[in-house]
From TrEMBL:
It comes from Cutaneotrichosporon oleaginosum. GO terms for molecular function: lipid kinase activity. One of its GO terms (cellular component) is membrane. Residues 1-117 form the DAGKc domain. This is DAGKc domain-containing protein. One of its GO terms (biological process) is sphingosine biosynthetic process. PROSITE patterns: DAGK.
Length: 415
């Protein structure tokens, strides 16, 4: 079995990674006589340095004839989604430097804050991963969920493809202002991105999740002036129809303002119970399809809001209701506007009559271009890639596209 690389971020989540790795992961690998190297991050973005070093080290070993070109590199991520993001960003930076990408297989450990990827692979109510006679005496029942991805890797089988979105920021003249920014969990603008941006100001006084609630309250009435162009995949641009519970042909151009704009490629849920993009699970894309699902709220489509004097205040309760329904197994994508803008927020299935338009728009495509339309509206220029924040230059745009993957190279995850 190839050597494992165990990546430990000591400040990820509640800071439990070093203890968990030392007392749960390494004893398991030792018992199975699996060789491994431990890499501990020392500062912010250090996981990226480790990713680059492993990439170049592997390429050197290939040149020396010590390993085959197609050998898999397995990395156990002792941290959360942010640690994995930094690691993959470092690998891809090395690829831009000329090194071949190769094949990377990640093992997730839920040691971060949200652990969206692990929660998608192993939902809280999922059946535990079965243990063979070889592993049963080595793993305590209480550790089954946390070690589920590692169990999958040790037992073999086939890992899942892990699509990566590459986002580039452009200036007003159309020239890139950034290297491509990778993300494997979420790429967002509007409300989601600004909650993360504003929450940092409250971190000192609110170290827990309360700071996110405060930032959400401050941004729930904000409309984000922008336009979006959706990039077609081989199947074009599709939009989810809650009446048929299937895709139909969708538009390529979306006019704002927007309240919510969030894209995902792999993870229907961003938290264990927050299922923001249930279409990824109910209508999964084919392997290597190269698409993302984009969840959109455009407040001016709400007849009640469009007719209101203070449109932001009128929109706030609707936004809370809709996003609250996402915690109920993704029920928000079934909601429809009634004839006068009413919404049956308790509905689990759309009404049989034509009714109004879907409250939540869900698109499937290869990527998008996000162009803020008011230079003075700073909040509409913020982009979030796996929790890291970036700013679209004045007059510029952000272009996001799912990275092409091939059978022999790219990123996979055990789950």
């Amino acid at each position: 079995m190839p050597r494992y690389h165990v990546l430990v971020n000591p400040v990820s989540g509640a800071g439990e990674a070093p203890d968990f790795v030392e007392h749960r992961v390494l004893p398991l690998l030792n018992s199975l006589r699996i060789d491994y190297d431990v890499h501990v991050t020392k500062c912010m973005n250090d996981a990226g340095r480790i990713g680059r070093e492993l990439l170049f080290e592997r390429e050197q070993r290939v040149k020396e004839g010590k390993v085959a070109r197609d050998e898999v590199t397995t990395v156990v991520v002792g941290g959360g989604d942010g640690t994995a993001h930094e690691f993959m960003e470092g690998v891809l930076e090395g690829v831009r430097g000329g090194a071949p990408l190769g094949r990377w297989e990640l093992v997730t450990l839920p040691l971060g804050t949200a652990n969206a990827l692990h929660s998608t692979l192993f939902p809280p109510d999922s059946v535990p991963v079965p243990l063979t006679e070889r592993l049963e005496p080595l793993i305590a029942p209480g550790n089954m969920h946390a070690l589920a991805s590692l169990i999958r890797a040790l037992e073999g089988g086939a890992p899942r493809s892990l699509p990566v979105t590459q986002t580039t920021l452009f200036t007003s003249s159309g020239t890139p202002s950034s290297d491509p920014i990778p993300s494997h969990i979420v790429l967002s603008t509007a409300l989601h991105a600004n909650i993360l941006a504003d929450s940092e100001a409250f971190r000192a006084e609110m170290p827990g999740i309360e700071r996110f609630k405060r930032a959400a309250a401050d941004n729930i009435t904000v409309f984000f002036p922008a336009k979006a162009r959706l990039l077609p995949s081989a199947a074009g641009v599709r939009v989810y129809d809650p009446r048929t519970r299937d895709w139909k042909e969708g538009p390529e151009e979306l006019e704002g303002p927007f309240a919510y704009f969030l894209s995902v490629t792999t993870t229907p849920r961003l938290e264990p119970t927050f299922v923001v993009a249930p279409t990824l699970a109910r209508l999964p894309p084919a392997p290597h399809e190269g698409t993302m699902d984009i969840v959109v709220l455009r407040p001016m489509r709400d007849p009640h809001v469009a007719a209101a004097g203070d449109q932001g205040v009128a929109w706030a309760p609707r936004a809370k209701e809709v996003l609250g329904a996402a915690y109920d197994d993704g029920r928000h994508i079934a909601l429809l506007y009634g004839a006068e803008g009413t919404v049956d927020i308790s509905a689990r299935q759309p009404q049989k009559d034509p009714g109004g338009e879907p409250v939540v728009e869900v698109f499937r495509c290869a990527g998008f271009e996000w162009t803020p339309t008011e230079e003075g509206h700073a909040k509409s220029h913020i982009v979030c890639a796996d929790g890291s924040l970036y700013t679209v230059p004045p007059g510029g745009m952000a272009r996001a596209k799912v990275m092409e993957s091939h059978a022999g190279e790219g990123f996979w995850v055990w789950g």
